[in-house]
Amino acid sequence: MLNPVFSTAHMREMGPWVSLPRILVSNKVNFQYPLSTTWFTEWLRASIAQKVTDVPQEVNCSSKVTTHTPQSIALIQIDVLSWMTRTAMELIGQGGFGYSFDSLAEGATPHPYAVSIKGMAPALLKIAIARSYLVGTAVKIGTPRFRRLVVDLLPWKNLHDLRDIVDTMHKVSVEIYESKKRALLNGDDAVMKQMEMGKDILSILMRANMDASEEDKLDESELIAQISGLTFAAVDTTSGAISRILHLLAQHLHVQEKLRREVTDARSKHGDLSYDELVSLPYLDAICRETLRLYPPVSYASRTAREDIVMPLSKPIKGLNGKEIYEIPILNNTNVIISILAANRNPEIWGSDCLEWIPERWLTPLPSSVTDAHIPGIYSHLMTFLAGGRACLGFKFSQLEMKIVLSLLVESFRLAPSDKEIFWQMTSLTTPTVVGEGGRTQLPLKVSKV
Ligand code: HEM
């Protein structure tokens, strides 16, 4: 049964783009994780082993800068961002839909879906002005079939590129959905076989939808839309967060070493870490929290007021006339930008060292300036995953991903900065680039086997 708080009717209200069974991601209910740490751990470790058994030869590595440390350990330079993007894509594929997008083998041909979803944001940007002014009206004209004909006939390359991207994503989503539907109709055993654990988000949603009352049922297009909605929300956010942590670990070697010690100690004590053992590693947790505080992958969100309100201020500000202002009237339909970054870095809440990356701040009880601030965010007094009814649905999922990937990588690899200067650009999603290399998103780091 779905979480009673979030019925299928609630999901419909949220719209096809975003709805999914919150039971999987809510901390208010039984936490049934679709992503089994065991299979993922095994799979990632095998991929790592395959990739680095022979690091010194490094014939397989995409970027080939080899240097030697005093201990004669080979360092290879790799684009960490691209590997983390592929990993996050595969994780939502398997955890979300029981589907594999990527073998994670070096040089594997990217899945068309992965290429399309990566290209979607840039393609949307190219027609941004037209979208702002035309789409609202255009979608009201004629039937979908008619509108599609108009899109096909218009001599507009950027629009056709976007159409092709959407077509590919839709085609793959329908294939995933249909194969799962066939398996479900053949009985649960077949589903288990097809998806190994049968615990992926889409299977659970489809099963719940079969049992839902007619009134509550989502229609097929709404179910299919979850695939792209989830993937789009899950991949670049999580891969950006993991990449940022790896970059920081490369810059702060003492933190990296301390984390490695925590992970290796736990591994020698417990072997493969269970969910509980992994999430209770204090330093790993502190590193994740501190990074998500100081460098939230999404730095702002926008909302539109749906009614006239008066917004109280936490403390008064001085107006131009010198008078103190305690609240701000906001009219219906006003667009409001919420700065996630500013809330997470507020010196009055986090102290004068708020701009420094200090994982240790999470190892002792937080100061009352933090606990009394009543930040509405769903995670750790932070706005990183936003707040309220439309907060991030995947925040637990992403934390588990981060912790599994980081613990495995740090146990197996040492990271060091490359000789390139990295600049994290603050687009709607914060992404790393190399200064002087044209804005292409990448994060070269030097990596050696532990
Ligand atoms: C570090 C990783 C992540 C961060 C920082 C993050 C952050 C956010 C933020 C700020 C929003 C609100 C955006 C807005 O409304 O303007 C959001 C929404 C959402 N996120 Fe995440 N997210 C992350 C990972 C994930 C993952 C892994 C999933 C899926 C498994 C996911 C699924 C969603 C969905 C479905 C929404 C839309 C929720 C709604 O509108 O009701 N996110 N996320």
Explain this structure:
This protein has 450 residues and is an alpha+beta fold. It has one domain (8-449): Cytochrome p450, CATH 1.10.630. It has helices at 8-14, 37-52, 80-97, 112-126, 128-138, 144-153, 157-185, 188-195, 201-211, 220-251, 253-270, 275-279, 282-294, 340-344, 347-350, 368-371, 395-412, and strands spanning 67-68, 74-79, 300-304, 309-318, 324-330, 335-339, 413-417, 422-426, 430-434, 444-449. The strands form 4 sheets. The protein has a 4-stranded antiparallel β-sheet with strand order 1-2-10-7. The longest helix has 32 residues, at 220-251. The radius of gyration is 23 Å and the shape is globular. It holds the Pfam family p450. Its cofactor is heme.
The CATH H-level superfamily is: Cytochrome P450
**Helix content range of the residues, please?**
40-55%
Domain module count: 1
> What do we call the CATH topology?
Cytochrome p450
Q: Hey, roughly how much beta strand do the residues contain?
A: 5-15%
Termini separation comes to: 45 Å
Q: How many helix segments?
A: 17
Please give the oligomerization state of what you see.
single chain
> Helix and strand succession?
HHEEHHHHHHHHHHHEEEEHHHHEEEE
Question: What's the shape?
Answer: globular
Structural class: alpha+beta
Give me the CATH architecture, please: Orthogonal Bundle
Rg result: 23 Å
| Heterogens | protoporphyrin IX containing FE
Classified by CATH, the class is Mainly Alpha
How do the strands line up in the largest sheet? Answer: 1-2-10-7
Largest sheet: 4 strands, antiparallel
Number of extended strands: 10
